[in-house]
Design goal:
The complex is a heterodimer of chains A (115) and B (114). Chain A has 115 residues and is mainly β. The model of chain A has no long low-confidence stretch (mean pLDDT 92). Chain B has 114 residues and is mostly beta strands. Chain B contains no helices and 11 strands. In chain B, strands 2, 4, 5, 6, 9, 10 and 11 form a 7-stranded mixed beta sheet that branches. The relative contact order of chain B is 0.33. The chains are: A mainly beta (115), B mainly beta (114). The interface between A and B is medium-sized, with 26 and 29 residues.
């Protein structure tokens, strides 16, 4: 069975500082990995995804994530935080195959950005 | 382009009343469809998924049911709501192939049970 652990339910940074949101996964097969962002009272928006190929993946809004198989990690980073980045972020894993695209989500990390 | 619609956006229902939430997808055919519930501070819980008309798989035992009467329509129902059914309900779709395809979410329905 696959699982996702997001380290830190709350992360607080200053505007302009580095954003680092941690995600570790477990999967019995090569995984597909995703990061989503959720603003209050809205659905989830896809930030980026890793399927195959390049392990450093760039997404929207200046975010990127690096797939590290040896560390079973897929941490999300952004060099300089903006106030508009304040939201909840979810890491998710899919095993593909006969999983019918089902995703297993982490518990989420709430990002707060201070002026 | 593909779009997903969920309604209503908010709903307040008394305990014991029925429920029907609807989700429709446009711009794609034969999508995989999903219903999630998001309770405060508890992440997303997959409730149901469907890979085709009339094909529903339940992930957790509960007071809810789902139906897919048309290719791009997914309905979440209950005959009698419980207080524990409160939460934020999200519908999502992914490409029919499934593998590595991201899910795309609707804007959700905030359900409050009184």
């Amino acid at each position: 069975a696959q699982s996702v652990t997001q380290l830190g339910s709350h992360v607080s940074v200053s505007e302009g500082a580095l954003v680092l949101l941690r995600c570790n996964y477990s999967s019995s097969v090569p995984p597909y990995l995703f990061w989503y962002v959720q603003y209050p009272n809205q659905g989830l928006q896809l930030l980026l995804k890793y399927t195959t190929g390049a392990t450093l993946v760039k997404g929207i809004n200046g975010f990127e994530a690096e797939f590290k198989k040896s560390e079973t990690s897929f941490h999300l980073t952004k060099p300089s935080a903006h106030m508009s980045d304040a939201a909840e972020y979810f890491c998710a894993v899919s095993e593909g195959g006969t999983s019918y695209g089902k995703l297993t989500f982490g518990q989420g990390t709430i990002l707060t950005v201070h002026p | 382009s593909q779009t997903i619609h969920q309604w209503p956006a908010t709903l307040v229902q008394p305990v014991g009343s029925p429920l029907s939430l609807e989700c429709t997808v446009e711009g794609t055919s034969n999508p995989n469809l999903y219903w999630y519930r998001q309770a405060a501070g508890r992440g997303l819980q997959l409730l149901f998924y469907s890979v085709g008309i009339g094909q529903i798989s339940s992930e957790v035992p509960q007071n809810l049911s789902a139906s897919r009467p048309q290719d791009r329509q997914f309905i979440l129902s209950s005959k009698k709501l419980l207080l524990s059914d409160s939460g934020f309900y999200l519908c999502a779709w992914s490409g029919g192939q499934g593998n590595g395809q991201p899910q795309h979410f609707g804007d959700g329905t905030r359900l409050s049970i009184l």
